[in-house]
């Protein structure tokens, strides 16, 4: 196999393809970037997965808005990333806190070796990291569900990715970042993805205020458990690429990270179901099992490439137990964050980051042939303190900056972060979308009209024998 390519600052794009074959430098390493591209493709499935999960958890009258938002978020975030997001997070001349605009508009981002792996073309690395950013932003907007205005939420998404996600990603994964050099161990995004999104969603819910008629029986009741299950399975599948690709190579370490991902998710299900069965006298909850899987996935994210399989099982189980026991955390804080983003991602991410410091193993980190990392299990107790420094820094920065950003947007004339009360009561779907939701509302309207004495016989003829009221309905 040829030697790994070396970045040449005089040809930052990797060479002129009209004069040389830019692929020649990667001969023998094609399998590596093909694997990372495949991981990127399946990470993309997390985005509609979150949309389906959120849609199922919300009430029916706001379900369409959350599906639509998942597509809009990936579109807006992609524009932000190619505009300046990638440069702010991963430029080679970045400072300890934020990158420069050296790669503004993806300038010179093409065939050169990426900043994080010499055998990965930078365009592949850029695409893979874009999907991390999009998933994170999609998690954040869950804090505004059922009352957030669509257009301001998209503007917030662009700004949040710029002033929160990109700096935190630079701290954590850029070789010049201060957390990277501390070092705080974060394999796949416990800090930039989960802790940051959890605290930011909490800030979003705080600034918007509580939903109207919060104590109605329908509040907090998922309208479609099937969508919750489907969304969770897509997220779980996408997470194999999320964690399995974060080694940035197709090494044994990457394969272990994928194994650990499944292990932690499964143990998360068992942990949450155990708590639910104790709380509810032996009864179970499909939504609870799904939340347990996500808690396990969140907990293992920073640790996937640093721990053995059995310790991954412990992390998934412990994280889900902690999150399940904090079921009422929103009530304690008196903040209406009904999608549980803070509980699952914020708290779950903090637990995972802490346990990474406790359980990280040098022998596991070295499975890629290059990484050196030790944790408490190797006798490096200082690593736990460094993990806590990461948790505190990212938590404080994400929450405070998100609050400032939201209040700035709130004070801009015409920038109405929250929908009008009437729109909230009738639902975001009817208030903000054309009449695409041809489900129960339209059918119910037809039934009400056809049930009048004057129209009943006509309705029966038109519906092929349908009758309403106390009579049997034949379809």
TrEMBL record:
<feature type="transmembrane region" description="Helical">
    <location>
        <begin position="307"/>
        <end position="326"/>
    </location>
</feature>
<feature type="region of interest" description="Disordered">
    <location>
        <begin position="455"/>
        <end position="475"/>
    </location>
</feature>
<feature type="transmembrane region" description="Helical">
    <location>
        <begin position="227"/>
        <end position="248"/>
    </location>
</feature>
<dbReference type="GO" id="GO:0008519">
    <property type="term" value="F:ammonium channel activity"/>
</dbReference>
<dbReference type="InterPro" id="IPR018047">
    <property type="entry name" value="Ammonium_transpt_CS"/>
</dbReference>
<feature type="transmembrane region" description="Helical">
    <location>
        <begin position="64"/>
        <end position="84"/>
    </location>
</feature>
<dbReference type="InterPro" id="IPR024041">
    <property type="entry name" value="NH4_transpt_AmtB-like_dom"/>
</dbReference>
<feature type="transmembrane region" description="Helical">
    <location>
        <begin position="254"/>
        <end position="275"/>
    </location>
</feature>
<keyword id="KW-0924">Ammonia transport</keyword>
<feature type="transmembrane region" description="Helical">
    <location>
        <begin position="154"/>
        <end position="175"/>
    </location>
</feature>
<dbReference type="InterPro" id="IPR029020">
    <property type="entry name" value="Ammonium/urea_transptr"/>
</dbReference>
<dbReference type="Pfam" id="PF00909">
    <property type="entry name" value="Ammonium_transp"/>
</dbReference>
<keyword id="KW-0813">Transport</keyword>
<feature type="transmembrane region" description="Helical">
    <location>
        <begin position="35"/>
        <end position="57"/>
    </location>
</feature>
<dbReference type="InterPro" id="IPR001905">
    <property type="entry name" value="Ammonium_transpt"/>
</dbReference>
<keyword id="KW-1133">Transmembrane helix</keyword>
<feature type="compositionally biased region" description="Polar residues">
    <location>
        <begin position="455"/>
        <end position="465"/>
    </location>
</feature>
<comment type="similarity">
    <text>Belongs to the ammonia transporter channel (TC 1.A.11.2) family.</text>
</comment>
<protein>
    <recommendedName>
        <fullName>Ammonium transporter</fullName>
    </recommendedName>
</protein>
<dbReference type="GO" id="GO:0005886">
    <property type="term" value="C:plasma membrane"/>
</dbReference>
<feature type="transmembrane region" description="Helical">
    <location>
        <begin position="118"/>
        <end position="142"/>
    </location>
</feature>
<feature type="transmembrane region" description="Helical">
    <location>
        <begin position="387"/>
        <end position="409"/>
    </location>
</feature>
<keyword id="KW-0812">Transmembrane</keyword>
<feature type="domain" description="Ammonium transporter AmtB-like">
    <location>
        <begin position="36"/>
        <end position="434"/>
    </location>
</feature>
<feature type="transmembrane region" description="Helical">
    <location>
        <begin position="187"/>
        <end position="207"/>
    </location>
</feature>
<feature type="transmembrane region" description="Helical">
    <location>
        <begin position="347"/>
        <end position="367"/>
    </location>
</feature>
<feature type="transmembrane region" description="Helical">
    <location>
        <begin position="282"/>
        <end position="301"/>
    </location>
</feature>
<keyword id="KW-0472">Membrane</keyword>
């Amino acid at each position: 196999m040829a030697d790994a390519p070396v970045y040449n600052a005089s040809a930052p794009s990797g060479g002129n393809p009209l004069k040389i074959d830019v692929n020649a430098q990667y001969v023998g390493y094609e399998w590596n970037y093909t694997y990372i591209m495949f991981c990127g493709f399946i990470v993309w499935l997390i985005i509609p997965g979150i949309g389906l999960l959120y849609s199922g958890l919300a009430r029916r009258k706001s379900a369409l808005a959350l599906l639509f938002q998942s597509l809009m978020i990936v579109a807006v975030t992609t524009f932000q990333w190619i505009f300046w997001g990638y440069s702010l997070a991963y430029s080679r001349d970045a400072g300890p806190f934020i990158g420069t605009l050296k790669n503004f508009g993806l300038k010179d981002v093409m065939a050169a070796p990426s900043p994080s792996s010499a055998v990965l073309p930078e365009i592949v690395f850029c695409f893979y990291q874009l999907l991390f950013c999009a998933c994170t932003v999609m998690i954040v907007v869950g804090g505004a569900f059922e009352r957030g205005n669509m257009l301001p939420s998209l503007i917030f998404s662009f700004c949040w990715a710029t002033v929160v996600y990109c700096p935190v990603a630079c701290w954590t994964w850029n070789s010049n970042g201060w957390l990277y050099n501390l070092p705080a161990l974060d394999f796949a995004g416990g800090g930039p993805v989960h802790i940051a999104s959890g605290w930011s969603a909490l800030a979003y819910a705080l600034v918007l205020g509580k939903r109207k008629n919060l104590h109605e029986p329908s509040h907090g009741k998922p309208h479609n458990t099937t969508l919750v299950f489907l969304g969770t399975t897509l997220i779980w599948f996408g997470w194999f690429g999320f964690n399995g690709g974060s080694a940035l190579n197709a090494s044994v370490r990457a394969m272990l990270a994928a194994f650990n991902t499944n292990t932690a998710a499964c143990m998360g299900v068992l942990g949450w179901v155990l708590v639910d069965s104790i709380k509810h006298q032996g009864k179970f909850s499909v939504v609870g099992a799904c939340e347990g899987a996500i808690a396990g996935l969140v907990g293992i994210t920073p640790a996937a490439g640093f721990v053995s399989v059995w310790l991954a099982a412990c992390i998934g189980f412990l994280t889900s137990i902690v999150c399940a026991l904090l079921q009422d955390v929103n009530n304690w804080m008196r903040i209406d964050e009904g999608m549980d983003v803070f509980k699952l991602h914020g708290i779950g991410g903090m637990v995972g980051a802490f346990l990474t410091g406790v359980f990280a193993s040098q022998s596991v980190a070295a499975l890629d042939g290059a990484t050196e990392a030790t944790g408490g299990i190797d006798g490096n107790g200082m690593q736990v303190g460094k993990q806590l420094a990461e948790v505190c820094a990212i938590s404080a920065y994400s929450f405070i900056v998100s609050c400032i950003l939201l209040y700035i947007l709130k004070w801009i004339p015409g920038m109405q972060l929250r929908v009008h009360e009437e729109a909230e009561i009738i639902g975001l779907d009817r208030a903000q979308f054309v009449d695409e939701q041809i489900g129960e509302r339209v059918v119910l309207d037809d039934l009400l009209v056809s049930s009048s004495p004057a129209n009943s016989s006509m309705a029966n003829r038109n519906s092929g024998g349908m009758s309403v009221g106390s009579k049997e309905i034949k379809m």
